[in-house]
Amino acid sequence: MSDDTAPRVPYWHLYTDEDGVSRQRRCEMTEFELKSMQPPAAPQWQGEKHHDGMTVMVTVQPVGWEGAWHENPAPQWIIPLSGRWYVESMDGTRVEMGPGEISFGEDQGTREKDGRKGHMSGTVGDEPAVLMVVQFDSQRDRTTPCRFR
Predict the structure, then answer these.
(1) Dihedral angle, C-alpha 122, 68, 144, 129, nearest 10 °
(2) Is residue 65 part of a domain?
(3) Dihedral Cα 58, 131, 103, 96, nearest 10 deg
(4) Which of 80, 76, 134, 130 is nearest to 105 (CA)?
(5) Does 113 map to a domain?
(6) Residue ranges making up the domain that contains 49
(7) One-character DSSP codes across 85-141
(8) Does residue 24 fall inside a structural domain?
(9) Does residue 67 fall inside a structural domain?
(10) Can you list the positions of beta strands (E) in 17-107?
């Protein structure tokens, strides 16, 4: 990518469809503006700012950890810092992620189907998965896949 070409930042979006089934879609953030974060610092590509109350935490999933089927407690960005983890949605899609791969979990409002509700997640490999979680305070009534541009 050259300095004058806007970046494309991929992410996975775990969302609830109109039938109450969790699904995952690969998305891209593409709306960036080249500007200084704080002059006189050099310009950098900046994405859209989202104003919402947020909670930030780091969580560590031990080796072999696997959660039961559940919904995300709030819409949240999940950013792996080290190790690997997976997310499996109700439609059977399983995505494994490590550092540099991000996910937006927004599967609230799913309906139980075949003993599944929300998603299943867990660690992959022989080291703990260290994840930074940024939870939004507000929730949307209806989720739209790839809503972050």
Answers:
(1) -20
(2) yes
(3) -160
(4) 76
(5) yes
(6) 9-136
(7) EEEEETTS-EEEE-TT--EEEE-TT---BTTB-SEEEEEESSSPEEEEEEEES---S
(8) yes
(9) yes
(10) 22-29, 32-36, 43-47, 54-61, 76-82, 84-89, 94-97, 103-106
pLDDT per residue, tens digit, the chain (149 aa), is 456 788 999 999 999 999 999 999 999 999 999 999 999 999 999 998 877 789 999 999 999 999 999 999 999 999 999 999 999 999 999 999 999 999 999 999 999 999 999 999 999 999 999 999 999 998 877 778 998 88
The CATH number of the domain where 106 resides is what? 2.60.120.10
Q: Which of 62, 121, 119 is nearest to 97 (CA)?
A: 121
C-alpha 140/C-alpha 104 separation (Å) is: 13
Q: In angstroms, rounded to a whole number, what is the distance separating the alpha carbons of residues 76 and 134?
A: 5
Q: In sequence order, what are the residues at sequence separation of 6 or more whose Cβ sits closer than 8 angstroms to the Cβ of residue 128?
A: 60, 61, 62, 63, 65, 82, 83
Burial of 123 (0-12, 13-18, 19+ CB in 10 A): buried
CB 89 within 8 A of CB 119: yes
Q: What is the pTM of this model?
A: 0.86
Q: How many domains does the chain have?
A: 1
